[in-house]
């Protein structure tokens, strides 16, 4: 089965082609111009998607040596994300489906990340514990099957990726925050600076607002503003912030592993590219001897391959799409079900 995947939820335009679960092509165009604005500008993002989606579609078919007639299923991100950006890819996919008679299936963007581990040679085994972390979402989940996801916890305020972006801005490191913080912290092996980790009412929830505020108060107290922070001290602050954030994430993962029986662990989403977080997950999996699946860096960020993969698995599970599906898809946890030990 050949599946075309289209992703335009934020600032990456991506078109991919899969044959069953094998990636034939996965082309990504990143909107790097947002750097000068310190964040994604929704209107500019939508315009860039309009310019790129057709050329990427043609390039994907050319690189894969297939024609539109060979495609069996067209899957496209239907939310959550930036509404204008989503509408570009979703409308393009619907148009292709309508004009060619090919099957169409809308895919939840977050679920694309959750199942992205299946793009690897070593795939997750159900049920598996998944930490999905990105700029907009932080979710701790038990994935029981292709159609049943259990939410254990989520962020009650900022997402982990959002916290990275905001702290990077406080330090004057620029955008995007994740890579900037990681690079600044790389030269530091220890720091006496301590930032707090929040404890939530639900033991599996996350909160990063207090951590972010603690960094801001520390900068204001010690330096006044970012311009007065010596380059070396920026590394120390970045190191301490990153250490606290990763500890907050992994602490809940360990608690979940102590309470629930799973066959594997998966880390997914844009923040899954963070070196320290990946290393900590490898350590956790090694200690409890449970297989770990982390997507390669190409599949951590937004990409069409994960959308095609999720569409393929949903289609095989009996799901079918309609042209009434729009960009205002609900968050996946709205459909999460209870889980018993």
Strand fraction: 15-25%
CATH superfamily of the largest domain: ATPase, nucleotide binding domain
- Count the strands? 10
Q: Sketch the major β-sheet.
A: 5 strands, mixed
The assigned CATH architecture of the largest domain is 2-Layer Sandwich
Helix share, percent: 40-55%
Q: Give the overall shape, derived from the CA principal axes.
A: globular
Major beta sheet, strand line-up: 3-2-1-4-5
Poorly predicted ranges: 329-341
Brief summary:
The chain has a five-stranded mixed beta sheet with strand order 3-2-1-4-5, sandwiched between helices. Strands 8-7-6-9-10 form a five-stranded mixed beta sheet. It has two domains: 2-114 and 298-335, Nucleotidyltransferase, domain 5; 123-294, Nucleotidyltransferase, domain 5 (2-Layer Sandwich), CATH 3.30.420.40. The protein is 40% helix and 17% strand.
């Amino acid at each position: 089965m050949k599946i075309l995947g289209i992703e335009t939820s934020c600032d990456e335009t991506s078109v991919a082609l899969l044959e069953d679960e094998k990636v034939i092509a996965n082309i990504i165009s990143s909107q790097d111009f947002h750097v000068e604005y310190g964040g994604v500008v929704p209107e500019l993002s939508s315009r860039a998607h309009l310019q790129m989606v057709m050329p990427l579609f043609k390039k994907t078919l050319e690189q894969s040596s297939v024609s539109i007639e060979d495609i069996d299923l067209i899957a496209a991100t239907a939310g959550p994300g930036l509404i204008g950006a989503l509408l570009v890819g979703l409308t393009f996919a619907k148009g292709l489906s309508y004009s060619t008679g090919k099957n169409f299936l809308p895919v939840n963007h977050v679920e694309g990340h959750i199942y992205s581990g299946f793009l690897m040679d070593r795939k997750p085994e159900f049920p598996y514990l998944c930490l999905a972390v990105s700029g907009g979402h932080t979710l701790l989940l038990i994935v029981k099957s292709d159609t049943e996801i259990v939410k254990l916890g989520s962020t009650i305020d900022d997402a982990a990726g959002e916290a990275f972006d905001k702290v990077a801005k406080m330090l004057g490191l620029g955008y995007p925050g994740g890579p900037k913080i990681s690079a600044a912290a790389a030269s530091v092996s220890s720091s006496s600076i301590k930032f707090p980790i929040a404890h939530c009412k639900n033991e599996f929830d996350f909160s990063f607002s207090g951590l972010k505020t603690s960094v801001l108060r520390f900068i204001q107290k010690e330096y006044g503003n970012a311009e007065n922070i010596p380059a070396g001290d920026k590394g120390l602050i970045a190191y301490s912030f990153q250490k606290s954030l990763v500890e907050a994430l992994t602490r809940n993962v360990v608690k979940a592993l102590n309470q629930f029986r799973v066959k594997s662990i998966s880390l997914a989403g844009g923040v899954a590219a963070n070196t320290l977080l990946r290393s900590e997950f490898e350590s956790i999996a090694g200690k409890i001897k449970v297989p770990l699946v982390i997507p390669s860096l190409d599949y951590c960020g937004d990409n069409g391959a994960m959308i095609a993969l999720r569409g393929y698995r949903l289609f095989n599970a009996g799901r079918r799409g309609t042209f009434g599906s729009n960009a205002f898809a609900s968050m996946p946890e709205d459909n999460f079900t209870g889980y018993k030990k």
